Amino acid sequence: MDPVHRPGEVSVAGPGRLRVASVPFSDPYVDAVLPEEAVPVGAPGEPSRWLDEAYLAAHADQVDVLHLHSGYGHLGLRELESWTETVRRLGVPLVVTVHQLRDPAQSSRSRHDGHLRTVLATAEVVLTLTPSAADEIVDRYGRTPIVLAHPSLAVPDPELGAERGLVGVQLGVPSSAVPDPVAVARAAASGAVSGGGRLRVLVEAGGDAHPDIRAMAESGELELVEYTRPDLAAQLQQLHVAVLPERCGTHSRDLEVCRDVGTRVVAPSCGFFADQWSEVVTYGNDERDGLDPVSLTAAVSAALTRPMPRPADRAWREEQRAAVQRVHAEVYAQVAADRSWV
Q: What is the pTM of this model?
């Protein structure tokens, strides 16, 4: 088993092995793309201690590459600018993966735009997940990213079947990403019924559903089910169609789980969800025009007329992940070598 080195400890990567500090330290995507020959340096916890300038300066000699994925949204723009200045001063190679060009958790795009402009100006290498996102990064920030496929995140449960006609959507209380969850539920329910199916609304355990959605569940218009994050893949596998409800965003991990387990996806017109997978049916939902409930109803109904896709071929997905890891290994070796010359 590869060792996990904690900051503050002396870490010896060994011949050909590079010490990589990922931000965040670990999540399903970070774990999937990390090459086997890389030694992860850090510890779980949010926010990452590598985002603290004093901590970074004190431990810069214990890391060969810093890879920023997410988890920096809590920093103010001036704080992040100061952090990137520290990264440059210390000569720590910075790699940035752009997962989201628009942060769904924020009410407007201005803050995230400023964050991206700051980190991309410092990054030695930029990565992203779709050609369309890469084009936007070139247009807006003048950086040309390497485009890498999103790796597999789930393995289907062979004991778990999917229900033909069952449509699912994750909805909680109103948010900047889903300001009107009731309208989404009503349109999706209408499409499910039109396609001969039914709607299941998934609510994360510990969260809450809108009172009107609870009323719809009590009247039999939909089913309300609580889930936990570890259980999400199994919940998605039981569906014929999964609806992504957000009006802003760029890429989706839930979409990749659906691809893995064989669930068709109905995705909004915002972002580049349809670029991730060909089995996506698109409906109108973005920040400029808002939700088009008629198009959502039609998209759900149309998706139900199509056969359920087969789960992704595991051998192909493993080959894909290995290829993504190889590119990460090459990028890390390149930027670490550049640092050694300095």
A: 0.91
